[in-house]
């Protein structure tokens, strides 16, 4: 057992959680810089160019979400096999998952590329925005394979507890993207800029570099996973298993993405001030989600490895401590945001008092319930890490389709609350879904799932047969 694994399976839980969560949070912050960099430079082109990027992003995210369940399956299996001490299975899982991701992303990217014009027509994009949006979407779909491969690299490395290498790669590519964006967008010297398409192309270049570096790390085998070319021979039994394990994860992420798109249509029905307030408030919420996601990913790694090592009670304790930290941490952040709400909104829209007032109201309505988000994310990550992808999927479906959207629609369209009803749907959902997820977790049914158990039984039977043969 390596020192790192020893810490994960036997070390102080709080200390290990922090040591894992901090680098993951830093990585997530750096990755969000991709969108911020694009927004910064594209914003200098004009409003129609910004609209072209804005209308393209939800569609590409939805397509990526469809294939992301495979990354969840690979990370879960690699974590459990690492905890069980099965390095051979970790390598096998990594290679087969990378193979599946490459094929799946190529199919999704090609399909998305062909359907891009129909997506934009369905969204009712104006002629002024259409051409730039189509170019941006086409380049984005070409780059989907690299986005998937690097995301898979991150998931597998996180599954075995190695988080520093992905952080270093993301740091380097974010810096490169910051310089490539203005070069490709505006041009330099005799090279004419490509406008909005240049932003997508800059991301394509940096993501392809990140994916190649990730594969190189795997092939060299110095950081916990050692891949060789023969590992990539298709194992259809594993592929089938991982596919059905990952499908609920894809449904979960797709349901969340689609739910937010539909909620955006509801928001748009209340006019410009409501749209702007929702946009700024949502951006701030996404920023708050970064540390919460980092903590939940750390919980997922530790729970997966401890379940693989058959330390179920320790896995439960890790989840409970994670939910406690998530609840307290996001509650404190929520209090700070409540106090400074108008100032935070004014950072994004400094010259519109009406939006500042309404945006601050939105923020204050939901921010004191953010602790519930911390609880949800940590419980869902434990479900995924244990292999109970259906549980995580159900939490997402309940959250988006049984609580938030119906509540937002009824309160905003059928009560005197109007757009306040949308704001209150966030607060109520955070509390209700947190209670629902935590109660489901405490039932303990997730403890009965252990994805490595079949292989462990085979090894145990083989060992007994060898001992028996040796005694004869």
Automatic annotation (TrEMBL):
<protein>
    <recommendedName>
        <fullName>Multidrug resistance protein NorM</fullName>
    </recommendedName>
</protein>
<keyword id="KW-0812">Transmembrane</keyword>
<keyword id="KW-1003">Cell membrane</keyword>
<feature type="transmembrane region" description="Helical">
    <location>
        <begin position="361"/>
        <end position="380"/>
    </location>
</feature>
<feature type="transmembrane region" description="Helical">
    <location>
        <begin position="12"/>
        <end position="30"/>
    </location>
</feature>
<feature type="transmembrane region" description="Helical">
    <location>
        <begin position="50"/>
        <end position="72"/>
    </location>
</feature>
<feature type="transmembrane region" description="Helical">
    <location>
        <begin position="165"/>
        <end position="188"/>
    </location>
</feature>
<keyword id="KW-0472">Membrane</keyword>
<dbReference type="GO" id="GO:0005886">
    <property type="term" value="C:plasma membrane"/>
</dbReference>
<keyword id="KW-1133">Transmembrane helix</keyword>
<dbReference type="InterPro" id="IPR002528">
    <property type="entry name" value="MATE_fam"/>
</dbReference>
<feature type="transmembrane region" description="Helical">
    <location>
        <begin position="392"/>
        <end position="410"/>
    </location>
</feature>
<keyword id="KW-0813">Transport</keyword>
<feature type="transmembrane region" description="Helical">
    <location>
        <begin position="284"/>
        <end position="303"/>
    </location>
</feature>
<feature type="transmembrane region" description="Helical">
    <location>
        <begin position="324"/>
        <end position="349"/>
    </location>
</feature>
<dbReference type="GO" id="GO:0042910">
    <property type="term" value="F:xenobiotic transmembrane transporter activity"/>
</dbReference>
<dbReference type="GO" id="GO:0015297">
    <property type="term" value="F:antiporter activity"/>
</dbReference>
<feature type="transmembrane region" description="Helical">
    <location>
        <begin position="93"/>
        <end position="116"/>
    </location>
</feature>
<feature type="transmembrane region" description="Helical">
    <location>
        <begin position="422"/>
        <end position="441"/>
    </location>
</feature>
<dbReference type="InterPro" id="IPR048279">
    <property type="entry name" value="MdtK-like"/>
</dbReference>
<feature type="transmembrane region" description="Helical">
    <location>
        <begin position="194"/>
        <end position="218"/>
    </location>
</feature>
<feature type="transmembrane region" description="Helical">
    <location>
        <begin position="257"/>
        <end position="278"/>
    </location>
</feature>
<feature type="transmembrane region" description="Helical">
    <location>
        <begin position="136"/>
        <end position="153"/>
    </location>
</feature>
<dbReference type="InterPro" id="IPR052031">
    <property type="entry name" value="Membrane_Transporter-Flippase"/>
</dbReference>
<dbReference type="Pfam" id="PF01554">
    <property type="entry name" value="MatE"/>
</dbReference>
């Amino acid at each position: 057992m390596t020192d790192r694994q020893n810490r994960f399976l036997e070390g102080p839980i709080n200390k290990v959680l922090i040591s894992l969560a901090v680098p993951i949070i830093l990585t997530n912050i750096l990755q969000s810089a991709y969108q911020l960099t694009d927004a910064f430079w594209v914003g200098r082109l004009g409003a129609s160019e910004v609209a072209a990027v804005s209308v393209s992003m939800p569609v590409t995210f939805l397509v990526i979400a469809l294939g992301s369940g495979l990354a969840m399956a690979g990370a879960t299996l690699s974590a459990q096999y690492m905890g069980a001490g099965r390095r051979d299975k970790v390598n096998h899982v990594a290679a087969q998952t990378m193979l599946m991701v490459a094929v799946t992303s190529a199919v999704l990217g090609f399909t998305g590329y062909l359907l891009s014009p129909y997506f934009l027509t369905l969204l009712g994009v104006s002629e002024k925005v259409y051409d730039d949006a189509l170019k941006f979407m086409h380049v984005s779909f070409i780059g989907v394979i690299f986005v998937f491969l690097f995301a898979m690299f991150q998931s597998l490395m996180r599954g075995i507890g190695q988080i520093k290498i992905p952080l270093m790669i993301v740091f380097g590519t974010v810096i490169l993207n910051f310089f490539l964006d203005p070069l490709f967008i505006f041009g330099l010297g005799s090279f004419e800029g490509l406008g909005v398409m240049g932003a997508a192309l800059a991301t394509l270049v940096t993501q392809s570099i990140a994916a190649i570096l990730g594969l190189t790390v795997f092939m060299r085998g110095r950081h916990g996973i050692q891949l060789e070319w023969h590992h990539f021979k298709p194992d259809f039994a594993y592929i089938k298993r991982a596919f059905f394990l990952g499908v609920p994860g894809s449904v979960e992420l797709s349901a969340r993405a689609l739910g937010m798109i539909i909620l955006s249509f509801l928001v748009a029905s209340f006019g410009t001030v409501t749209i702007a307030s929702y946009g700024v408030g949502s951006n701030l919420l996404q920023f708050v989600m970064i540390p919460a996601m980092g903590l939940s990913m750390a919980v997922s790694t530790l729970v997966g490895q401890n379940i693989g090592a058959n330390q179920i009670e320790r896995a439960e304790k890790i989840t409970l401590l994670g939910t406690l930290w998530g609840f307290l941490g996001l509650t404190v952040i929520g209090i700070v945001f409540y106090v400074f709400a108008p100032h935070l909104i004014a950072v994004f829209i400094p010259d519109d008092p009406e939006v500042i007032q309404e945006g601050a109201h939105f923020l204050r309505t939901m921010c004191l319930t953010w602790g519930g988000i911390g609880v949800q994310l940590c419980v869902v990550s434990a479900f995924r890490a244990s292999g109970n992808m259906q549980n995580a999927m159900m939490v997402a479906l309940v959250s988006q389709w049984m609580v938030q959207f119906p509540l937002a629609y009824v309160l905003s369209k059928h009560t005197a609350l109007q757009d306040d009803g949308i704001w209150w749907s966030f607060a109520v959902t955070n509390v209700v879904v947190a209670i629902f997820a935590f109660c489901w977790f405490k039932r303990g049914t997730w403890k009965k799932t252990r994805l490595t158990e079949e292989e462990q039984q085979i090894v145990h039977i083989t060992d007994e047969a060898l001992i028996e043969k040796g005694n004869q």
